[in-house]
């Protein structure tokens, strides 16, 4: 009889975490790509996966470092998001702000997955894929004219 001994303890949680972070990265990244925005599937998978791995490791290796690791993820990913924001010198328009926010939000999803908050993660994934689809009020006003 075939036994799957490697799916004990942390291994099963890790496989669930990896599956969920790949699903989240794909869904959020596909939403960004479908709108022609930067930070697509690969970027979102890396941000969510990296955050999940850092959180997972800190929770299982050194639980005393949880707040330190979490703070470093938030600031590190914030720095990454800041690098994607652009300001046009011609029309003084700022772009990619929502994409930067999606990267930061994706890191929080990765942390939630790393801490095994699966329901919170799934709700956050739904938010990240649906919220950008809500029409902006400025676009609605232009339609009314």
Which key phrases capture this entry?
145 residues, mainly alpha, two-stranded antiparallel ribbon, 6 helices, 70% helix, 3% strand
Describe it.
- The chain has 6 helices and 2 strands; from the N terminus they run αααββααα.
- A hairpin with a 6-residue loop joins β1 (86-87) and β2 (94-95).
- With 145 residues, it is mostly helical.
- The mean pLDDT is 86.
- The chain has one domain.
- The longest helix is centred in the first third of the chain and has 25 residues, at 10-34.
- It has helices spanning 10-34, 41-61, 66-82, 97-114, 118-130, 137-144; strands at residues 86-87, 94-95.
- The radius of gyration is 18 Å and the shape is globular.
- Strands 1-2 form a two-stranded antiparallel sheet.
- The chain starts with 9 loop residues before the first helix and ends with a helix.
Spatial arrangement of strands, main beta sheet: 1-2
End-to-end separation: 71 Å
* Structural class assignment: mainly alpha
Overall tally of domains: 1
The residue-averaged pLDDT reads 86
H and E string: HHHEEHHH
Task: Report the portion of residues in β strands.
Answer: under 5%
What is the total tally of β strands? 2
Give the proportion of residues in helices. over 70%
Number of helices: 6
Radius of gyration: 18 Å
Low-confidence stretches: none
Q: Overall 3D geometry?
A: globular
**Biggest β-sheet, characterized?**
2 strands, antiparallel
- Seen as an oligomer or otherwise, the chain set is single chain
